[in-house]
Amino acid sequence: MDELLQLKTMLNPCIQCGTCTASCPNEVDMDLVPRKLWRMVLMDRHEAIFDSRTFILCSSCYLCTLRCPRGLPLTAAMARLKAIAAKRDLAKYRKSTRFYKSFMESVRRHGRVREGEFMGLYFLAMKNPLLPLSFASLGIQLMKKNKVAFELPAKPGIGNLDRLFKKVAEIEEAL
Amino acid sequence: MNYTYYPGCSLSGSAMEYDVSTRAVFERLGITLTEIDDWNCCGATAAEAVSSLLGSALGARNLALAESMDPSSDILVPCSACYLNLKKVEMERREDPELAKNLDTILGEEDLAINNPPRVRHLLDVLVNDITADTLLQKTTRPLTGLRVVPYYGCQCLRPYAVFDDPEAPTSMDGLLRACGAEVVEWEMGARCCGASNMSTKPETAKKLVQKILMDARGADAIATVCPMCQLNLEGFQKAISRDAGTDLSISVLYLPQLIGLALGLDQGEVKLDKNLALMPGFMEKLLGFDIVIPH
Lengths: 175, 296
Hints:
The complex is a heterodimer of chains A (175) and B (296).
Chain A: H1 3-11, H2 19-23, H3 34-42, H4 46-49, H5 63-67, H6 74-88, H7 94-110, H8 115-126, H9 131-134, H10 136-144, H11 162-174
Helix pairs in contact in A: 1-6, 6-7, 7-8
Chain B: E1 2-5, H1 16-28, E2 32-35, H2 52-69, E3 75-77, H3 80-95, H4 97-108, E4 120-122, H5 123-131, H6 133-139, E5 148-151, H7 172-179, E6 183-184, H8 198-201, H9 203-217, E7 222-225, H10 228-235, H11 238-245, E8 252-255, H12 256-263, H13 281-289
Parallel strand pairs in B: 1-2, 1-3, 3-4, 5-6, 5-7, 7-8
Helix pairs in contact in B: 1-12, 2-3, 2-4, 3-4, 5-6, 5-7, 6-7, 9-11
């Protein structure tokens, strides 16, 4: 089934009460409040959904999920929209979706994320020479403490999860 | 008592002091932690944002490995994001037979299986309900008298699964901190979000959240945390956020087991205080008063 149709079914019981909006810590920076975003999903307003920055700002605090009077998994719904944006590689969301993808690429290669490699992959994926600068302050603090090191992307080796990733993709394609 | 231990990726890197202090506290309490062989990343919040099945599969592999080691031993998880990801698989595969079937297929590739998986427990849950504040009180040899601490829980150890505490007004750390001799300072921000990975991808949004937390923590000597993401967001950006706020918001931030370890008589090296990014002079002076030598 189409992913947005799946999401629509999932959100069908929404009564538009706005508890999610009132609970969201990031709502001030959203263009559509969460309640309205769900309305757009229910009305098949796909353009409005992927024109909005709302779902990409979700920080997975689970307050809306906890409080929703209909018991809807709203945090998971936000993640579903992120996953659709990631799959379509929509330009508007790349700063976030490529962050997630780079993280997962490091996990696929080694089974565990290597923090240095992950950031390296992210900077390569974004092709923005200024981006590393915005991470420099934290990076320097962590390097001074010997907590992370610059790592060149390494070939998959011990612990790599190719088989698991492939099987997941196979199952998803068949769905 | 024995637990199967899932450290997770952060605890092998940027949160190594959380790992070291957790292990040291349990050793001091005479409890064995057995690390899961060949554990893999839980997927953090990244996996679900790429594919929900991938997130479940990563968690499931860890449950299967833990079950194959000892099905009767609970899985102890210090990182809140790892905890939630593993917990989610534990809960969702019970309610969703199709998901359970897909996970069986994926795990079958490696001849792994989940039948009756061990329970997933957050470190804080184990400290409060298994170890108990009473035991900590008995074992405290160096009470942190006069140390004013605000307990910070963040989100994912509390929500969406309300397993061991009130998911909006948590109190489980209070008794533990008091058992260590510390003073618990009342505040409003204990269960509020730190912004998580938005700090990397949407820093302007995340900094606002951290600013509110740091503002409310003023007056305390330290913030106690139970999650590497929260710890990093609260300790790593204090200068920039103070600049934005136009006031000095710097404050010491420590992992809960670091504070417990000090109270149990461990020295600063055994809880890796040298790895924290934010330890303030006022806090360090108080530690000197407890005969704890401060790293530089």
